[in-house]
Amino acid sequence: MAIVEQPKGGLRNQAALCRDIHHEGRPIILNVYTPKPGSSAASLVLAGSAIVGEGEQDGRILCYYEGNAIGSKDLESFYERIRRAAGRLVTKYPTTAMAAFPAEELECVAAYDARREYLPLIKDYRTLERWAQEPSLIIQGPDLQEGAHLTSAIGTRFERAYPRLLKREGSVHTYALRCGQIVVINIVSGMSEVIQPTDKLADSIRQEVRSGQ
């Protein structure tokens, strides 16, 4: 089974995604920014920080950022720093790691779905990789072929897709991959199902997990 580089629907090719989309008054898609060299933003945030924000207002963009200043192991990856910064923005969590930067000081390099916790679009691979010091495939995460599979057939690829356990219910273990896919594994039957990020079933699973937290 080969890794699928692009999910169905061409999500990684939708350049129009680098904007704000709101759902019930809360942002789903956030912009991922890098600071332009020599800007005040570049001097304020640590190099390699994940910077996320909403749309421009009065020439400025309110950004939340995470640079892992304390060297936490949980925040070593750029993706996890994006998750942390985005979580603070969406919940309006009190933090000093936020600032309103002039829009001309920032480059929008990607889009992040804060509800599904993945990057559906990378707009500028080179700039993002240079800032993050990570390959874009690691930041975005590889995809698995959707559908039902023998778990043994996807084992190695699954392990390399940065799985994060969402829940356990008896023999059924459910994971979120960095690419946004949901993987449901039945350890008794030896079967797995890979679900695309925007599938209604994937959204239902995420909502169930949130409701149980």
The gist of it:
This protein is α+β, with helices and mostly antiparallel strands.
Distance between the termini: 34 Å
**Which spans of ≥5 residues are poorly predicted at pLDDT below 50?**
1-27
The sequence of SSEs as H and E is EEHEEHEEEHHEHEEEEH
Radius of gyration: 18 Å
As for the number of domains, it is 2
Total strands: 12
Largest sheet: 7 strands, antiparallel
Oligomeric category? single chain
User: Which structural class is indicated by helix and strand composition?
Assistant: alpha+beta
Task: Estimate percent helicity.
Answer: 25-40%
Overall form: elongated
Sheet-strand content, in percent, reads 25-35%
Task: Give average pLDDT, whole number.
Answer: 88
- Helix count equals 6
Q: Describe it for me?
A:
The strands form two sheets. Strands 1, 2, 3, 4, 5, 6 and 7 form a seven-stranded antiparallel sheet that branches. The chain has a five-stranded antiparallel sheet with strand order 8-12-11-10-9. It has two domains: 130 residues, no CATH class; 66 residues, TATA-Binding Protein. It is elongated. It is α+β, with helices and mostly antiparallel strands and 213 residues long. The chain contains six helices and twelve strands.
